[in-house]
Amino acid sequence: MSNIINVARGFEKADLVIKNANIVNVLSEEIHKADIAIKDGIIAGIGENYSGEKEIDIQGAYVTPSFIDGHVHLESTMMLPSEFAKVALPAGTTTVIIDPHEISNVLGLHGISFMHEAVKNLPLDVYTMLPSCVPATPFETSGFDLNSYDLSLLIDKPWVLGLAEMMNFPGVLNQDNNVMAKLELAKSRGKCIDGHAPYLHGKDLCAYIASGVKSDHECTTPDEAVEKLRLGMYVMVREGTAAKDLDALMPVLKTCNTRKCIFVTDDRHPADLKEHINGMVRRAVE
Question: What is the pTM of this model?
Answer without folding.
Answer: 0.89
